[in-house]
Amino acid sequence: MAEKVETQPGGMRDGVREGLQELREDVSRDKIESRLDDKVSDRPLVKHLLDMGIVLRALLIAVVLTLIVSLLLSPKLGAFVLVLSFAIAWVALAARKYNERRPTKPVDTDDDDE
Between the CA of residue 103 and those of 16, 32, 100, 106, what are the distances in Å? Predict the structure, then answer.
């Protein structure tokens, strides 16, 4: 009839506990921050994409465009414009900031020659 399965005492409970401990270690703040630092150093544009000023400006642009489209045409189209305009503005503003020319720094001259 019913097959009896033998388990070790606390087997499932211990397995879940071990899994939770491994998950806590994998998503610890230090590991996440080190992974983020690695990604930012590998891809410099990510630093600008995560800049809160750029995200807020993109959100402001998206909200204004959404209000205009919602009032003039339709709220459903406004929702679509919200998502699309935020994504485009976010990437465009981040790329523009990334491509800004940085001031040229003078080359350090050795003072030993004097």
Answer: 55, 33, 9, 10
Cα distances (angstroms) measured from residue 37 to each of 15, 30, 41: 32, 10, 6
Query: 38 with 48, same domain?
Result: no
Against a cut of 0.90, is the pTM above it? no
In total, how many domains does the chain have? Answer: 2
Please write the tens of the pLDDT for every residue from 73-87.
999 999 999 999 999
pLDDT, tens only, 96-109 = 887 776 667 777 76
Mark whether 48 and 89 lie in a shared domain.
Answer: yes
**For residue 103, what are its two tokens?**
């001031």
